[in-house]
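Lab meeting minutes (informal)
Scribe: AK
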Amino acid sequence: MLTENTVRASDRRVQFIGLNAYEQAGGGVLRDLFEHDDGGWLQDVALLDRLVTEKLKAEAETIAAESWKWISVAVDFPYGHADGLREVEGKTVDLSPEEQITIDALEAEQAKLESDYQDADELPDEVDQRLGEIEAALIAFEDRPKIYDPAEIVRAGVFVSIDSEGRLSVDRGYVRPEDEVPLADPDVGQSADTQSIEGKAAGTSVQRTVIAVAGSAADAEEDDEDATKPLPDRLITELTAHRTLALRDALANNPAIAFQAVLHNFVLTAFYRFASSGSCLEIGLRTPTFPAQAPGLRESASAKAVEARHESWKARLPKDESDLWDALSALDGDVQASLFAHCASFAVNAVYEPANRYNQGHVSAQSVRTRLDQADVLARAVDLDMVRAGWKPSVDNYLGRVTKPRILEAVREAKGESSAQLIDHLKKADMAKEAERLLDGSGWLPEPLRLFDSIESSVDQESEAGPLPEFLGDDEDQENAGDDDPQQLDAAE
């Protein structure tokens, strides 16, 4: 309960500004005297956000000297934030002879160290540290600056954010549709809820830099009612956003099913009037956006796989669209099919949307139900498994967002009644945390992510469930947990 309104020292924002800067500004840190706490918990979240905003502004002002038209700044941008923008091609700065010599020397040293210690069970601390330094240095050489056409810079912009490791992330060269033709007014339109700063570059006026620090999603309300309530609409939307990305990735890896899915949609359109309006495959490559950004969506394995595949295809295709037809004609059937599957996957929409009960909105309950039913058909066809796709229940993405009966129901389904009883006396925050531990590796999924309506419990559930730490258990639990209890002994091991 003490840490519910705090931020861990491992948070990307803390890594970005440094814990020392926060403490020097007067921020308090809560620490655990009895367990490893990864640096503690920062108690003044408002101070942390202010320090992060100030540092991001300073970085934006430095980048503004490059004369970009706009710079959009956020702690983290949502998935697909650059959709609809044209990416400017920059030329990577060539390595100097001195830099190439340095790279060769680092690679030789890295190879020698790896060869010398290839049979060692554990690397010495100094060797492990040196290999880390070499890897960081080589990565720095790979991430080389690019040179952009000045004519493109005056109409393009930059995204500045913080990556998952707390490092500054600068993504240059994106042109908005309205900026394709230079405008007479150099000011970039601002929304009512953003802050702006002025930048100057080489004596000329530079566009305002938009600074919008993303906030965290609102915490789920505490609900200790005995009844199991339906899942909140927003949570279902977030969960099915994860499923949509995973389904896109699975479909892109199965060209035969992708072709059949598109053919199925075409036949619906041609022969069954109005039937295609509820399909989960939105043909025309109109990529649906996610109305709610689920925690960890941008960093998920599915998102990274989709992005990597897209960049790989982008590198193979001609830059001039007039050359595209001949380039596609030169590809053999299998390669064309793979490209077809990749493009078709972007049309997948398996996201749940709450509909007005009287269908007085842009979506009806029937069309959403039809979409999700067809998404189930497609998921079975590509053998979608959200566990293999990398999703697992955590406090952030599910357990901390639902009621206590829902948490207990999840543990009961995955681990059995005895495991649910281990945590049924806890407060919600502790219950969610311990449920995450119990469910780790169980393969349990909430209903919106399941392929079938039911889920089988794991074999030998009783032996897999570990006891709670002593400080979380009550006296009755400790009295009943004898030294000869096999479940307690297994968990201790």
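Next up, CB showed the second protein from the same session:
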Amino acid sequence: MDDFLARLNDQEQHRYQKTQRWRARGVNPYPLRVSRTHTARQTLDAFARGEALSGVQLAGRLIALREMGKLAFAHLQDGTAKIQLLFRKDAVGAENYATLVKDFDLGDFIGVEGEIVRTKTGEITLQVTRFELLAKTLSPLPEKWHGLKDTETRYRQRYLDLLSNEPVREIFVKRSKIITAMRTYLDEHGFLEVETPVLQPLYGGGAAEPFVTHHNKLDRDMYLRIADELYLKRLLVGGIERVYEISKDFRNEGIDFKHNPEFTMMECYQAYGDYTTMMTLVEELYAACSLAANGTLQITYQGHAIDLTPPWPRATMRDLILKTSGVDIYADADLPALRQRLAELNLKVEAKPTWGKQVDELFSVFAEPTLIQPTFVMDYPEEISPFAKKKPDTLCARVVERFEAFSLNMELGNAFTELNDPLDQYARFVEQSKQRDAGDKEAHPVDLDFIEALMHGMPPTGGLGVGVDRMVMLLTDQSSIREVILFPQLRT
């Protein structure tokens, strides 16, 4: 205990001494239970409706206290609202009144009982007849409730951020509404919510480097999942025709404004659908979630007016790259030819090891920044889409039925017409393995168990992954993923 007390600063030492005075009077400063009949919001609303309220019991933080001789005004804040308190010395007793002034601090949790009145200034107020300490705070609240400004402190001490910044609390209220609306939409459209393993013997379903751990009893390495895809598609083999999971995924990658190593993903799969089916689903899902969070489909994101009303524009990756860079990827359909075209046009693009990755880099540099309104970008290179069916046309044999939805330089969703040919899937795995041997740490490993599942037959399927954190970013107008994750990963 001495070493703990030695760590307290002067303010905390002063509050600790008050805690000891409570104990000396035989009062537990952290009582077991509390009586509460109303929240602050219920009280304010009931009084505004004209209801007579007496014997009201409230509980919350003491966030303001000002003594005026025989009167003291205060404010109590709970999780719903703020309400004024009035303490009269003759009503609560001289000794209790002195204790209030002397041994309560801002931030302490207080329980109060009394009658609701309206003061001469018109403010709805609880006139206190009885009060008690519910929890003594040793550390003072930040900046007298003016809010935390330091970004690093806000993320590392999110509890203080939530406590002092009401707009931050509202973000996470909206996040909850968004996820509820997402789940409701999928449930109402016949999708079954399931849970698949977080700890996996073989990771898969995405292009990412995994986190690795070790299972001592089995004496084998295990992986935190990077995606749910391959387990969910096994369920389609098992006869579940519409399935989804809202899950935590993990990728051992960098941290920036739209990436966090731990993130929330919604993946869903629909038998007898395709990537056009998933486009409709994305439009309707975003509409449902925006209405739940904002009550409108016309939102503002980082100063841009965004219209989420379906249908969203559709464009092929080829057409967008041609329009923004002058390169026709179908005409330069191998890596040497594409690199030569880039050199001829003097386009500054980072060199990539395969045609597919080079196309994706070209798109990211030139086309993606032009996509302000929500847009479906269709028909991706097969090399970066190992789980999508090839597009059945002769323009280019190297593209598949895959789309990504974009808005303001941010991917909002990724979907395929799912590959269900076990021989083709095996060949894709083998090609990915070659890329892995060549040094691509994000290339997909060969998953023979998944191949065996496909050999038992998976119906034609449309599949979709939506980044929940990025959806919340868009629908709450936040420029960083850290603003929509309660406890983001931070550099030390």
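CB comment: The chain has two domains: 2-140, 164-313+373-483.
No objections, moving on.
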